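FORM 12-B: Structure-to-Sequence Request
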């Protein structure tokens, strides 16, 4: 399976089927789509794969239909509406399905709203230019009427917000930049440069300034040369005159993403992928564009084969340790890294948390059970040989399970404190994504408390 979050969709859908509510509160209806597919095809990895494929097909369909609407209005021959889907259709569809469904609706919203009126044009007395009228009919020609097109655009924008608010805000940001005259772009750039200094630096919040890594280097670390190639054509790519203002808005937005505005891996990377895909609406295909597409596809596929961990976890190595951990009688809650936790929860229907256990997790622990830790990245021999100042082993029990070692959480806490005192080289592994060491961030706690 590709996708680092795909089993989470399965966990949410199973919870819907079994209890009628989501395991983690979320207003997006995308999990209901997965639950519907589970009802038809059964709960399995294959159904999740079908959901990912369906998501990619949804993006392709949205792009084609939006291009049909736009190019029909500006009297481009029908042959030139055709396009070759960007490989980002599959990157987004497989890695970020929730975002992709919202992005599909946003693409349709852009398609129906084009040509987009500027604020100054709203005060003009002249009507739309005749060059913007449709050159051939649609099955329902009324869709091309200005007011109904904008009604449809607004409706699809609401759907985009419903599926993923971040995507809708992205679309709103593009429209704001579209309305701003280009002469004010330098002023806007200076404002964004100052923005990170006003954002909190607390990682427990959803929005915070992360200056630890330059965004483009972070993008390269996540996806290789493919993302840099696509970013370059997003920012420096040229466009025909009729699309120039919109493409300039996209390009400037992409240029702003070189600044460390938000935590890159969680927010800016996804925004960048969405921006690159949105530009596909306005591209007219020719020999040069096919060359650009070929290089982009080749670079992404190269990264996929040389660094597959950027797109998936090693799920094949999780079944045997997961099955053994699930069979421990008093295992009431397992603490493990993000990918293993979702896989374990989906496959074995056992509670798992990819954060340090907090008061809420401890209070929900079934009576007579313990909290266990799936240690990843530290060898069994290291854990076995670890002893405190009195030569007493830290771990009362260690179950070796390949790349994972199962220990009691209370023993692990004592061991990690010992590593901190010694400033051990293993501390960087113990305090990393491989072995969760932070409590659930505040925005996740708010979701559990308020459903928002």
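FORM 12-B RESPONSE
SEQUENCE OUT:
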């Amino acid at each position: 399976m590709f996708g680092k979050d795909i089993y989470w969709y399965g966990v949410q859908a199973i919870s819907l089927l079994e209890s009628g509510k989501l395991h983690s509160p979320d207003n997006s209806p995308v999990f209901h789509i997965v639950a519907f597919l589970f009802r038809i095809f059964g709960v399995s990895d294959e159904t999740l794969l079908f959901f990912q494929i369906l998501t990619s097909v949804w993006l392709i369909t949205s792009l084609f239909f939006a291009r049909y609407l736009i190019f029909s209005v500006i009297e481009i021959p029908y042959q030139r509406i055709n396009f070759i889907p960007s490989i980002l259709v599959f990157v987004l569809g497989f890695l970020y399905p929730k975002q992709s469904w919202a992005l599909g609706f946003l693409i349709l919203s852009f398609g129906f709203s084009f040509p987009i009126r500027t604020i100054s044009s709203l005060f003009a007395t002249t009507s739309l230019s005749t060059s913007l009228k449709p050159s051939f009919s649609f099955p329902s020609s009324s869709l091309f009427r200005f007011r109904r097109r904008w009604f449809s655009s607004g409706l699809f924008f609401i759907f985009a917000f419903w599926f993923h608010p971040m995507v809708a805000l992205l679309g709103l940001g593009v429209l704001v930049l579209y309305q701003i005259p280009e002469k004010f772009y330098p002023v806007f750039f200076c404002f964004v440069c100052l923005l990170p200094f006003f954002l909190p630096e607390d990682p427990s919040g959803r929005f915070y300034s992360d200056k630890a890594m330059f965004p483009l280097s972070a993008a390269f670390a996540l996806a290789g040369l493919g993302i840099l190639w696509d970013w370059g054509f997003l920012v420096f790519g040229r466009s025909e005159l009729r699309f120039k203002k919109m493409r300039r808005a996209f390009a400037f937005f992409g240029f702003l993403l070189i600044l460390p505005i938000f935590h890159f891996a969680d927010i800016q990377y996804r925004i960048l992928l969405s921006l690159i895909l949105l530009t596909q609406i306005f591209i007219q295909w020719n020999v040069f564009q096919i060359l650009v597409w070929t290089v982009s596809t080749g670079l992404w596929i190269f990264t996929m084969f040389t660094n597959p961990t950027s797109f998936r976890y090693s799920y094949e190595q999780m079944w045997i340790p997961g099955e053994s951990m699930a069979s421990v009688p008093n295992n009431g809650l397992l603490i493990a890294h993000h990918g293993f936790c979702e896989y374990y929860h989906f496959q074995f229907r056992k509670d798992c948390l990819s954060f340090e256990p907090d008061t809420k997790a401890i209070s929900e622990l079934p009576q007579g059970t313990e909290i266990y830790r799936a240690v990843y990245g530290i060898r069994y021999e290291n854990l076995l040989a670890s002893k405190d100042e009195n030569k007493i082993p830290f771990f009362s029990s260690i179950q070796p399970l390949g790349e994972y070692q199962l220990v009691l959480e209370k023993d692990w806490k004592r061991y990690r404190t010992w590593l901190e005192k010694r400033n051990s080289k293993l501390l960087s592994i113990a305090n990393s994504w491989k072995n969760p060491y932070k409590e659930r961030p505040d925005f996740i706690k708010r979701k559990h408390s308020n459903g928002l």
